[in-house]
Amino acid sequence: MNQLEEARKEIDRIDDELARLFEERMKATRSVAAYKKENGMAVFDESREQQVLARSKERIQQPDLKEDFADWIQALMDLSKKKQRELLNVNKVAYCGVEGAFSHSVTCRLFPHGEQISCSSFDDVFKMVNDGTVHYGVVPIENSNAGVVGEVLDGLREYPVYITQAYDAKIRQCLLGVPGSTLSDIQWVYSKDQAIWQSRKFLDALQVQTVCYPNTAMAAQYVARENDKTKAAIGAKENAMLYGLELLAENVETDSSNTTRFLVIAAKPEENDEEYSSLLLTVPDAAGALARAINVIAAFDLNMDALQSRPVKSRPFEYFFFVQLAGRTSRENIEACLGALGAVCTSVRSLGSYSIRKDEEA
């Protein structure tokens, strides 16, 4: 055995011991999380971290290794904080919007005993899931009439999250105005861009100006606050009662089958094999590159239910693809497919396997 092999063998031995100690440390983290939960304490304790970092430097004899060891301990503490957040927030679910938004309604339906956390943007939902502030996030991925929600596709690519469930909700849009207003009074309509698109035929006939808002419930809040008979909002019927508005028209969506698919996202994949699976991939800029990827998917007896393209930020006219698969979605088959796709794609990442639940309306 030469010197290199001996050194590597020693590193392997040390790594085995480090792995054992890491498991012990994370076990202690669970006890810390349980105590903090019982006593209403915050996860982050700055004074404690400073003490741990100072002590870590004292433990190292070689001066040139003191800062390196402190950096390593900081990384371990960051992992510990993330695990504590996961343990403390197992019942917390984030959604984008306010009370009355379709995302809120769906979140309540999927997690009736969960603590719903309102976010101002889809990106905030992804951030909270990623850092362990909440256990799950609920986001809309696509509407049957208005198409895909680009910001959500961006979030799936930018954050290391997984899809654990999907939910198809029938969407009934209504026109909501201030008390005493009529259809003939309305000149301006406010709502989420997708809701406006879903109701385009009705709005064109009404001959009004439209203004996009972050979500439907916020638009209803705005109209109620303005108390202007010329302004109305498109949203769920429940918003009329929530915000003191009148129902001027029901079912204004162009297509009665109007349905939005929502995704439940988490920082870790579910372990169970499910009916559907999704991938994100990019392919080389070459003729037939995407076709080769599609052929690989077909070779593993997988049906491509959806293929959505989205521009890659900061790289003009380059695209990534969101793929939903059905068929042989067992973990073994998906992993084998991912391996084969690696040979023809520039990048490929699994988003996990999940079921799709369908309901009458949200």
- Helix count, DSSP H or I runs of 4 or more residues: 12
CATH C-level class of the largest domain is Alpha Beta
Q: What is the ordering of alpha helices and beta strands?
A: HHHEHEHEEHEEEHHEHEHEEEHEEHEE
CATH homologous superfamily heading of the largest domain: Periplasmic binding protein-like II
In round numbers, the mean pLDDT is 91
The biggest beta sheet is recorded as: 7 strands, mixed
Summarize the amount of helix as a percent range. Answer: 40-55%
Proportion of beta-strand residues:
25-35%
CA distance, first residue to last residue:
67 Å
Please summarize what this structure is.
The protein is an alpha/beta fold and 362 residues long. It is built from 12 helices and 16 strands. Helix 1 (3-39) packs across helix 3 and helix 2 packs antiparallel against helix 3.
